[in-house]
């Protein structure tokens, strides 16, 4: 435990230092708030994961609670990246205008033989496909806490009378649908997004989510197979090992995020006048997320006003 705590603290401290510096530099050069708001929130993902993993090493009996917080932020980041893509293009109206101009795209594997017609309706379906994860993931995480209180939820236990199996299935389907929808959005707007290096940004986010989610599934299977001995002892050992690996991975991820979400892209000789404290408040405020989620899932076909835009202006 001492060795794990020492390595975890070093990695966590490094991650927090890099990420905090990066966010502060973005806020110091806050010249494109519609983009940097989402970038700053996305970068927060790395220290959030690292701190959660480190706290789980120190307090293993509370790891499920810390995992719940991490899971909620995981869903939040997919939303943020989707919004960042939309803002890179110029907002929702321009995305729909682009959809109408492009008309159609093929689906991704294994549905590549099917065609997706691009219009306002398909845009909202894609957006809902991404955003459903930010609703389902926190719900399943909170359900896991509730079931654990009733002693019917144990991590790595795939038995039919245990909630872990069903939460894992739901989360797996939800994140797959979300990532598939996000890839459809990127494929539809590829030409507009290419100058912004969105592939590297997407890979950074996907790598963090992939390693945290599938790593936990892989370790759960290994524990179930009995490779680390008795179930109870193996669960504690693997949980601590997974948290340590995540601390190390987040230290590496902080370097990748520093490069792909660089503040240097927004440095200008003549800075925009703004309040630094207000910028910090905007980054931490999530009212816009709640409003956008409500608007996405209560969409009733109201026009976005894209007819006022012409394709030549994009």
UniProtKB/TrEMBL annotation:
Location of this chain's protein in the cell: Membrane
Record-linked Pfam families: Solute_trans_a
Sorted UniProt keywords: Membrane, Transmembrane, Transmembrane helix
Any single GO CC term annotated in Swiss-Prot or TrEMBL for this entry: membrane
Keyword Transmembrane helix attached: yes
InterPro entries, per database record: Ostalpha/TMEM184C
Protein name from the UniProt record: Uncharacterized protein
Organism (species): Blepharisma stoltei
Lineage: Eukaryota, Sar, Alveolata, Ciliophora, Postciliodesmatophora
């Amino acid at each position: 435990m001492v060795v794990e705590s020492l390595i975890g603290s070093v990695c966590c401290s490094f991650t927090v230092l890099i990420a905090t510096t990066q966010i502060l530099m973005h806020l110091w050069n806050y010249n494109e708030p519609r983009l940097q708001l989402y970038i700053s929130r996305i970068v927060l993902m790395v220290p959030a994961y690292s701190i959660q993993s480190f706290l789980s090493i120190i307090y293993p009996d509370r790891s499920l609670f810390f995992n719940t917080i991490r899971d909620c932020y995981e869903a939040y980041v997919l939303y943020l990246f989707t919004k960042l893509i939309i803002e890179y293009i110029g907002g929702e109206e321009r995305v729909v205008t682009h959809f109408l101009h492009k008309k159609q795209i093929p689906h991704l594997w294994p549905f590549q033989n099917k065609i997706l017609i691009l219009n306002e309706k398909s845009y909202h379906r894609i957006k809902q496909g991404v955003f459903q994860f930010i609703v389902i993931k926190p719900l399943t995480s909170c359900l896991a806490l509730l079931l654990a209180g009733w002693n019917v939820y144990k991590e790595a236990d795939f038995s039919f009378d245990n909630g872990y199996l069903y939460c894992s299935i739901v989360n797996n389907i939800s994140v797959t649908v979300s990532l598939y929808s996000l890839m459809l959005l990127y494929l539809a707007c590829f030409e507009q997004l290419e100058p912004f290096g969105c592939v590297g940004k997407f890979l950074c986010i996907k790598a963090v989510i992939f390693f945290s989610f599938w790593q936990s599934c892989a370790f759960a299977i290994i524990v179930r197979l009995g490779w680390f001995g008795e179930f109870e002892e193996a669960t504690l050992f693997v949980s601590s090992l997974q948290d340590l690996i995540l601390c190390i991975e987040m230290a590496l991820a902080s370097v990748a995020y520093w490069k792909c979400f660089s503040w240097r892209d927004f440095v200008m000789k003549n800075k925009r006048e703004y309040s630094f404290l207000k910028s910090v408040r905007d980054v931490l405020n999530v009212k816009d997320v709640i409003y956008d989620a409500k608007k996405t899932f209560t969409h009733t076909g109201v026009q976005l006003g894209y007819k006022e835009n012409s394709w030549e202006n994009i």
